[in-house]
């Protein structure tokens, strides 16, 4: 096998591992925040004060901004991207908010942690696994081809 072809396969493998590793780190970080919210979450009422457009490379979506008062009297306004019914909220609507007492800006809508957010984490981990395994396949193919010549 030519060296330039071998390097191409190794480059693709490295890119797959990079993307998979990045997805895995993001997924683990979000899972840690989610578990913290489950363990230390405080339930209060909030009100929808605005909507903000969040643009990603693949899609754009509008999310609500909620204002609520923490149990210690601090007023918090934060963008809510996860939660049950988050896309159905309307301006001025009162909604239940679960916030992290140690970081009140980390909050979600609902009275309990939504099972839909767990599905999101599962999808991120599946994508990470696919890229990591894809990188392994490219590495194996390149090594087999290199040894065969």
Structure description:
The protein is of the alpha+beta class. It has one domain. Helix content is 48%, strand content 30%. It has 2 helices and 5 strands, in the order H-E-E-E-E-E-H. The protein has helices at residues 3-40, 115-148; strands spanning 41-55, 60-69, 75-79, 94-100, 103-109. A 5-stranded antiparallel beta sheet has the order 3-2-1-4-5. Helix 1 runs antiparallel to helix 2. The longest helix is centred in the N-terminal third of the chain and has 38 residues, at 3-40. The model has no long low-confidence stretch (mean pLDDT 81).
How many helices? 2
Main β-sheet description: 5 strands, antiparallel
Instruction: Point out poorly predicted stretches.
Output: none
* Principal-axes shape call: elongated
- Report the radius of gyration as a whole number of Å: 21 Å
What amount of the residues lies in strands? 25-35%
Q: Structural class of the secondary structure composition?
A: alpha+beta
Approximate helicity band: 40-55%
What's the quick description here?
The protein is of the alpha+beta class and 149 residues long. The protein is built from 2 helices and 5 strands, in the order αβββββα. A 5-stranded antiparallel β-sheet has the order 3-2-1-4-5.
How are the SSEs ordered, and which strands pair?
Elements (H helix, E strand, L loop, with lengths): L2 H38 E15 L4 E10 L5 E5 L14 E7 L2 E7 L5 H34 L1
Antiparallel strand pairs: 1-2, 1-4, 2-3, 4-5
Helix pairs in contact: 1-2
């Amino acid at each position: 096998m030519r060296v330039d072809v071998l390097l191409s396969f190794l480059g693709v493998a490295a890119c797959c591992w990079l993307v998979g590793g990045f997805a895995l780190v993001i997924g683990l970080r979000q899972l840690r925040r989610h578990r913290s919210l489950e363990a230390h979450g405080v339930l209060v009422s909030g009100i929808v004060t605005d909507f903000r457009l969040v643009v990603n490379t693949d899609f754009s979506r509008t999310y609500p901004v909620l204002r609520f008062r923490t149990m210690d009297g601090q007023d918090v306004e934060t963008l809510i991207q996860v939660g049950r019914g988050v896309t159905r909220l309307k301006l001025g609507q009162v909604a239940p908010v679960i916030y992290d007492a140690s970081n009140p800006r980390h909050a979600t809508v609902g009275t309990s942690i939504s099972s839909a957010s767990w599905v999101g984490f599962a999808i991120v981990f599946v994508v990470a696994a696919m890229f990591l395994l894809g990188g392994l396949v490219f590495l194996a193919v390149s090594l087999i081809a290199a040894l065969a010549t």
